[in-house]
Amino acid sequence: MQSRRQGNAQGIDVSHHQGVIDWPKVASAGISFVLIKATQNSMDPMFLSNVKGAKAAGLLVGAYHYMDDSVTTADKAKVAAQMFYNAIQAAGGSALFDLPFVLDYESNKNGLSKAVLSANAKAYLEEINRLTGAIPMLYTYPSFIGNFSGLSDYPLWISRYSNQAPADASGWNSWNFWQYSDGKSGGVLPNGSRMIPGIAGGVDLNEFDGTIDQLRQRYGKKQTRKDDVKMSETNSDINQVSPWAADAWKEATDHKYFDGSRPGAPMTREEAAIVVNRLRKNLLALIQSIAEDVSDLEQRMQDIERK
């Protein structure tokens, strides 16, 4: 895998172990992103306050789930994903977060096979993708990554407390984020230190594979595929329909769910409420119109939507 590069964006990852953090001081120290522990067997007690503080300080924010050893099956992994998603919703919803959601998988105290570990990770990652619509990322160590197979399409956050580049492994030949220090050993920040103002004691140090501008460009909005272009970048004019959405936009406007203006603009909750309410009324009207014969259901739905 690649080495660290001068000019790469610097970040940290935190949990309740760091206590109360002075986020403006963290931001002023040149830290541009943070990955915050959300859940393990329950929500991290500092998760909500850390998200709020980091966002207010202008950092790019992500969240991670630590896969507990009690998760021994794919079904339990899906339950863990739902718990993480609930925490994300409590913090303000998926759209509030900038960076990929992360699965931290680094422990196997129950001696599960590699096949089971891979299946658990896959089930969790796929469930997060289903729940959020965004591709999540895997965090692990070089000594643990060999347990996984068939997961290298997911972005990788690798932990290696060193300046020596991690070796290629399990299908990955590059990292997206590198945790290069635990605040005590490993690499150092560009200023030669491992200490972050605003945090008492040590904290994990991380680097993104690119500059701050590249970090913001890549993760300003969630991606739909590992290395895809952001949907928001396919069309910078909010008054023009993106090619990938043209057919769906025409159908939605023809049926009067939208008024046809500003197709590329973000959607507020108020606007969403209007669409949902209209859809609800149409469905209720459709149901009321149904007797025994449903052969012309599509036509009746179209008739209702034209009203």
TrEMBL record:
It comes from the Bacteria. Residues 280-307 form a coiled coil. One of its GO terms (biological process) is carbohydrate catabolic process. Gene3D superfamilies: Glycosidases (3.20.20.80). The keyword Coiled coil applies. GO terms for molecular function: lysozyme activity. It holds the Pfam family Glyco_hydro_25. SMART domains: Glyco_25. Keywords: Coiled coil, Glycosidase, Hydrolase. Belongs to the glycosyl hydrolase 25 family. This is Glycoside hydrolase family 25 protein. The lineage of its organism: Bacteria, Bacillati, Bacillota, Bacilli, Bacillales.
